[in-house]
Predict the structure of 5'-nucleotidase.
Amino acid sequence: MSIWKKQHEVGSSKLAATHEWPSQINTFQIFTLQTLNFSCHLTPNSLIPFHFDPRSTKSSCMASFRSRSLPFASSRLMQSTNPVHSGAVEGVGGNILRRFRSIITTEERVQKLEKEGTHILQEEIANIRQAFTAAKDKFLKIPDALKEMPKLDPKGIYVNKNLRLDNIQVYGFDYDYTLAHYSAHLQCLIYDMAKEYLVNELRYPCSCLKFKYDNSFPIRGLYYDKLKGCLMKLDFFGSIEPGGCYFGRRKLTRSEIDNLYGTRHIGRDQARGLVGLMDFFCFSEACLIADIVQHFVDAKLEFDPSYVYQDVNQAIQHVHRSGLVHRGILSDPQKYLVKNGQLLRFLRMLREKGKKLFLLTNSPFYFVDGGMRFMLQDSLGDQDSWRELFDVVIAKANKPQFYTSEHPFRCYDVEKDTLAFTKVDTFLPNKIYYQGCLKAFLKITKWNGPEVMYFGDHLFSDLRGPSKSGWRTAAIVHELENEIRIQNEDGYRFEQMEAMAKLHIIQELLGKLHSAVGKGDECEEYTSLLQDLNNERQKARQTMKDMFNRSFGATFLTDTGQESAFSYDIHQYADVYTSKPENFLFYCPEAWLHVPYDIKIMPHHVKVSSSLFSR
């Protein structure tokens, strides 16, 4: 407006002599002309008297602002309001009436575009609503569609990276939860021993002794936040699962998660700062952490979540390192160990094919020896020893440091329970070795990385080191067999596949709806459809979760059907994965194991194509 004021002062005498300013032109009209890019071309000499309706100009200006919410018309609108393209200004002395008519034409165009945009928007919402209705009708056809989907093998080998078994000459094994199969009673034993240590040694309240292990609460692959005290499940990309974040035994709402973390997406880097509970022994640890936190909350006691983890982890480690759990298992092997004749068949088959075998475990030898004798006693002959199945037996290996340290091997005297002082530069038959490191192991055996495959249950302690060192890796995930059996059940295949199909289709429709409707353009039809889609999506998510674990859902999947963070780690560090080592009995030792061509991320997941419901 200062430009207009200056121009008016300079040319006031000339204007007074030739024209009279119309009273209708006011400050708002001048500002409006500036907004529409006419002020830079208008001078006092070019102005002529005319009747100017401020309401018309204002509506034209506001229409130009409203037009920004119509993406499909933005380019046409910009052309119509630009004086260069519209011909509204043709230099000094141009006809202002023609300019004014251009403004009116622009307003008419904007109104027309707004009407067209509203009509197109309503039509798009109606189409999405129609697609949603059609999809709900097709959900009824799911039982027929499921007949075309093959069932998966609970004892199958699932491949992340192509693997030729004929290239594998050396097979290595962990012991606990790899060669040794344990019953569900073991978690209760570890839990009870750890809580007693907390009370007796770390002076936790005696009321903690009343805690009972809840096998329905934890799953493998959870994360504990030592700073905030939350036990959570993450998805493949490091986001907190909305229905899988607990403070103690109380599930946090989505808003509580947002308030606590600012965002659900923790991300890979920040997630590494959390404590991962990855092996089978972590079930009791996760449950005890949650119970301790809940106890402190209920008792209104102040506590530091990092101390809770430190103390519980110390208790769990003490149970193992002190030998308490080992002696407890061997005192009643019938209760805690599962006999396994198939394991012996597998190991013997490898020996007959000329393969080399080694055992590499953190457990002490007496515990491994007692367990192997019990598990194989019905299959081994009286004169046979399980030790004859292995070329090398290494106990108390101290993984994962074994893969990075330079600690020497020590020969263990079974009879005297002592370690020899002589240097180990070769592995002798029927001898037991303690400690050591990967560097020395490769130097002694001359076994090259790619020809070695190592089996283990702990992704970090067992498999990450070998994977980075060039060994091929096989993850043993015992719960995999049960989850696949659930997937194969008719009840699951109907309920779960219906939920997954609904979720995939609803997600697609929600994407289309959000793309069609911009911010500020919401209408009643949009709000109604959005609510219906979200309600249907929430039902599908809850159905998917309840089929596995009421607290955290499936081990490999989130409630949305995406892969979990545990799946990410399996994908990273395991070339193949299966529920038991002896599942390899069902495959030829010269087999080529290939990644399925149609996998999403995890090859054992059932793929539900929306095309099944479009017929």
In short: The CA atoms of residues 171 and 463 lie 14 Å apart. The longest strand covers residues 240-247. The radius of gyration is 36 Å.
